[in-house]
């Protein structure tokens, strides 16, 4: 009778969730952005996302076989990496390029470090950085959403200026260099909200990303610290630029709504593995990401800075963790 | 009328399913003692008792069988009439194995002890008792903290001119899921508890008393409040509802919630002028002082979704868990874990002859399904550094960092991350999505450090 009684350390009950359920929540939160991507970029969105996800999962499977470890693909983390990578790619990239990015993201970004939980850098951003460095041309060609047909009358007044090829951030860069008026970019706000602008596959629609982000916050899959820190810090720096030099810099609202910033705040920077553990560290990390993004956007050469901001702050995460060592309640800090 | 909703609490904590419904409406029942009892000689923090009876010696209920020889200790008494069968090692819920006096009960004698709550009423006046005499009576009766830690109550109440006591907090939180024994004691033995509270306040020379009850027990809050109002001598006693959150009943967490002060790490509540007493301890104090009865019985909850007769029983200390389970309908085949205590901090036992102690207020029986939710068949996956353990940790430490340091044998790193501040409440393991036994690792680390220190030359 006693052979079926088990003994283990307390506690004997636990919350009914797992790494898998957390990853599943992230995937669910990405669905609105996926829907918008399919609306705007049609089959191309499906193909690229599928290529990335399949490449990621297959690579993880192969790596596990090589490492002679148990399979870990059922934790769905490779799927999340795949989707995030796909959403951060330009819609016009060839499918093989997307797949290559997925392979690199998982193999070099995650598995060489020892798999989930051990990697220093966000795998999806590692994959994207590899593609950006190796295929610069393909990675900066932006197609216009399928719903914006240049032959058709403008869908919204914002489109009358007919930014056909450049993204709002590209326009912003031109404005900083004095080649364009930032007001044109500013008028893209409603288009950026729904996603009818040029940009990466899953990042164009600000509203879809916010819906997903709110879902994650409400389900407590992510804590509010990092998204809040990223957005506040970015808004502050964009606000300063706009306040002192509105003729060169885009408005902060437009900065937040365009490019990868929202996607970054809710889905990329919140990758738990590569972000700090303590709440204070999360604030620092998020503030650093936001500041670096704006630094690159407003001063640097690239129109968008999310990828580099994330990778740089990922590198700083161990330091931040050490810096924000917790002091126990009723205890003293160690010297 | 008293406001039921509690706002006071602490930072961190979790909300496990309460599961009190199985037993909260079941009145305290008498329990018929079995063939034998095993009374452990170490049921408290401090020096283990020395047996003062010999094999084959006849003992009566209430007789001292283990004497305390240090200041921080408490005597143990026989809970039955019978004959000492042996003095030997016995499974101990916390220590593994420890010395115990095994007593074979005398079938002919009346071995049913009845509680005496009817002897206490609203007219109780503690001023009739001398504080020194109260403390002596508490010590002679072997009263120790019945909430879990088992610290000798007399030592707690001893006035110390260096550390005057500002407040006595009575712990009626009972934050562990399933357990309802303190709830029943509060609602059925209300005046006895209150008498104990008044006696304790007199013994500790501190008149400021707060009775803290979690707001998921509105009945207990109302009844206690009413009794305090009726009692003329209880002017300085206040019933305070606190938020329902695990581990609200943890000593440090309760002090934080009610008194807004932090107990220093490695320190004890008297350092900041606080004494915390469990409600069952208060009932035992009242019985010890007024009736002169030693602590030989306690109310224990036997609960679980798969047991035929869950309930709250007045059990002789030393009763084997197996007797209790048999009395409640036996082990269902679905039951996969027998826990002495609650599911968050209790000890899973494999040997059902393990006896009930002064501190163990519950036997919880969990089915495979209840523990499979995360801990049974599912494997430990890598830490994804989600930080949930940090967010729920009521001690404010970094459980994952400490646990992984222990896992890799880096005890110095674990120490640097304040392993000694851990209160072992289990919140981190409860919340961990990767099924890592964080609390288990930290407990192991503490034991390893303690052992290493012992080996060090002086």
Structural class of the helix and strand makeup of chain A? mainly alpha
Tally of DSSP β-strands of chain B? 17
Q: How far apart are the termini of chain B?
A: 60 Å
Main sheet overview of chain B:
6 strands, mixed
Strand order of the largest sheet of chain B: 1-14-13-17-15-16
Rg of chain A (CA only): 21 Å
Tally of helical segments of chain B: 14
Output the CATH class name of the domain at 119-291 in chain B.
Answer: Alpha Beta
Helix content of chain A: 55-70%
Which helices and strands, and how do they pair?
The complex is a heterodimer of chains A (335) and B (458).
Chain A lengths: L18 H23 L1 H25 L9 H11 L7 H13 L15 H12 L33 H9 L5 H5 L2 H6 L11 H13 L6 H20 L7 H6 L3 H8 L10 H20 L7 H18 L12
Helix pairs in contact in A: 1-2, 1-3, 1-9, 2-3, 2-4, 3-4, 3-5, 4-5, 5-14, 9-12, 10-12, 10-13, 13-14
Chain B lengths: L27 E3 L5 E5 L9 E2 L6 E2 L4 E4 L8 E2 L4 E11 L3 E10 L25 H10 L12 H5 L9 E6 L8 H8 L1 H14 L5 E6 L3 H13 L6 E6 L8 H9 L14 E5 H13 L5 E7 L7 E6 L4 H7 L7 E6 L6 E3 L12 E6 H5 L15 H5 L6 H9 L3 H6 L10 H5 L6 H18 L3
Parallel strand pairs in B: 1-14, 9-10, 9-12, 10-11, 13-17
Antiparallel strand pairs in B: 2-8, 3-5, 4-7, 5-6, 7-8, 13-14, 15-16, 15-17
Helix pairs in contact in B: 1-4, 1-7, 3-5, 4-7, 11-14
Description:
- The complex is a heterodimer of chains A (335) and B (458).
- With 335 residues, chain A is mainly alpha-helical.
- Chain A folds into 2 domains: 19-140, no CATH class; 157-323, no CATH class.
- Chain A has 14 helices and no strands.
- The model of chain A is unreliable at 149-164 (pLDDT under 50).
- With 458 residues, chain B is an alpha/beta fold.
- Among the domains of chain B are: 119-291, 3-Layer(aba) Sandwich (Rossmann fold); 388-455, no CATH class.
- A 6-stranded mixed sheet of chain B has the order 1-14-13-17-15-16. Chain B has a 4-stranded antiparallel sheet with strand order 2-8-7-4, with no helix packed on it. A 4-stranded parallel sheet of chain B has the order 11-10-9-12, sandwiched between helices.
- The longest helix of chain B is centred in the C-terminal third of the chain and has 18 residues, at 438-455.
- The mean pLDDT of chain B is 90.
- Classes of the chains: A mainly alpha (335), B alpha/beta (458).
- At the A-B interface, helix 1 of A face strand 15, strand 16, helix 13 and helix 14 of B.
